[in-house]
Amino acid sequence: MTTHEFFVDMTCEGCSGAVTRVLKKLDVKFDIDLPNKKVFIESDKGKDVLLETLQKTGKTVTYIGPK
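The chain above was modelled as a monomer; its predicted structure follows.
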């Protein structure tokens, strides 16, 4: 399984809550680093699927790379 690192423009708990809601639907392991605006996702799914899912939050999302 690969851990992917994403930058997500989150400013508050509500933002991280939105990320949590969309990722729970994918059934993946993830960790949110709100102060640094990063999301780490452990998954076999491709980065494009993960990126598209994170973009459903309406936040600016950038793929940083595998960790």
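The chain has a mean pLDDT of 96.
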